[in-house]
Amino acid sequence: MEEVDNIIIHTLKNIGCDIDEEIVSLKQFTDEIIVKAVICCLEAITPGTGLPKILPASMSLRLRTATSIAEMIKDLGYRGDMGYQTLLYSNEVDIRRMFMFLVERLPRDTDKAGGHVKVKGRFEILMNDIRAKITNDLKKKWKPELMITDNIPFRSRSLTVPETFSKNISEDKKEYWNRYLLPITEQCTEQELIPSLIVLNEIEESKVGQISREESLHALNKQTNNISEAIDIQDINTEITLNKALNNTMEDETVEKMKSLSVDDIKNTIQSVTDNVHRLKDEIQTLDEELKILKRKETQILEQKKIEDELLENNVKQLKIKSRSYKLLPSKDENVQKLEEMIQASTEKLTNLANQWNKHRTTLIEEYRNLREISTLKDSESYKIEEEFEQEKQKSKELEKEIAIKNVLHKQLQDEVAQLSKTVNRFAYTHRIMEIIGNIRKQCTEMDKILEDTKQLQKDINKLTGKLDRSYVLTDEMIYRDAKQEETSRKAYKLLVTLHSDCNDIIEVAKQTGSIVREIRDLQEQVDTEKSYDIGARIDRITADLEQVRKETTTLQQEKMNRKS
């Protein structure tokens, strides 16, 4: 365990724990050093614990800090026995197990000076930046985006836009607007765009209020025309009639009259036009319904015609058959004889064809069976090949995944090796590790040899017991046969039975003694481990601490009484 202790002490020094050079094993650790090293490890794993690195003088405060440290170690996932007694009344085995757990939980790269983690790698830097950004955003108060108007002043600029509402526009202006006028996005900056558009909209609305009454009437007439044109027309004839009606109602003469009329008269005319439009729409709907009814009747008539055509074809066929039969009636005997000869010839032809078919059928069935067997064999072989191919494909995918994982691990290890300090003499550690691995391999080989010897011994024992049982059964049968006739054979049989039972008892006693010896060995090992814990010294320390706690309680009680008096 010296190598393990040296590695633990070296890592504790690297994370900033102040340990003397004289201390070379965990046996030499005192309570203060243990607590200091554990707190350094916890600070390196989870910074900001706020625990004191030195134990207080008061025993009650010591117990409280030790219990809090033990709880933090349990929260990290330590599964062993952990409490204040592990830190204050330390045992070498428990301390070594605890420090091994904490060293495994340490970050990969640590700063020797202060124990703060150096985060390296793009992914880790990105994750830390995201984490810091989220924490800063959570600390701020939330505001809607529309309320955030910091550093955005309301500055507008005059925009030049073509005057679409005016009529009298010169050709020069149009040519300027078409060729040389810049878009509004290029006439100002992005911050000035929305304020400039708002100001321009206000100016446009003020100009629109000054449009003459004639232009408003003209716009109103255009709206009525747009309303009439937006009506959905389904049929071509109805569309023509609707266009005629709209053209009759909205001629140029009526528009000139509307200019001289008042607003109420214009509204009345628009209402009459809309009524006419609705009336025409209703007429269109009625015509559509009548058209649908006529289409249904047409389909029914076509179906009836189809049925009558089929009946007519059937009647024509029957008529042809009957006309042929009527032609055969005058010479019926000759026709019957001819039909019988034709039937006989057809039957003979059918029998010949059947015989020929049976001859060919047997050969074809045999060929079919052979081909079927060959196809089944090929299918089974192809299925096996497909299964093997799928398995190989799956194995190749798994190997590719493993190779990718190992490549990533190889890169990480290379980065870690490059980041490690060159001053540390790692050859000694690697040499020690290789020696430990060699010793472990030797022990494994020796254990394998012992297991092989025990297996061989068990086989020999089983063979001998089987041989002994068979020989006992054989001798028992032979002596039992002779025991019916001879007195000596009877005595020999009794002695054989007693000898067999005594041997079984001896074997059972040997087994019990072996189990007892194993139990004694286990108990001796437990006793040795308990002796290594040095329970007596720990009990003495506990009693001394208990006396100190009692003294502290008595002094506190006296101080309390003095304050009351």
Describe it.
α2 (31-45) packs parallel to α5 (92-105) and α15 (426-483) packs antiparallel against α16. This protein folds into 4 domains: 2-106, Actin-binding Protein, T-fimbrin, domain 1; 232-330; 332-424; 427-532, no CATH class. Helices cover 78% and strands 0% of the residues. The chain has helices at 2-14, 31-45, 59-75, 84-88, 92-105, 122-139, 171-179, 184-187, 190-208, 213-229, 236-249, 252-260, 263-328, 332-419, 426-483, 487-532, 535-564. With 565 residues, the chain is an all-alpha fold.
Question: What features would you highlight for this structure?
Answer:
single chain; 565 residues; mainly alpha; Actin-binding Protein, T-fimbrin, domain 1; 4 domains; 17 helices; 78% helix; flat
Short description:
The chain has helices at 2-14, 31-45, 59-75, 84-88, 92-105, 122-139, 171-179, 184-187, 190-208, 213-229, 236-249, 252-260, 263-328, 332-419, 426-483, 487-532, 535-564.
How far from one another are the termini? 60 Å
Strand content: under 5%
Helix content: over 70%
Count of helix runs: 17
Q: How would you sum up the major sheet? A: none
Mean pLDDT, all residues:
76
Indicate the radius of gyration in whole angstroms.
Answer: 56 Å
Total domain units: 4
Q: Which H/E pattern describes the elements?
A: HHHHHHHHHHHHHHHHH
Globular, elongated, flat, extended or rod-shaped: what is the shape? flat
List low-pLDDT spans. Answer: 110-121, 223-259
Count the strands? 0
Structural class: mainly alpha
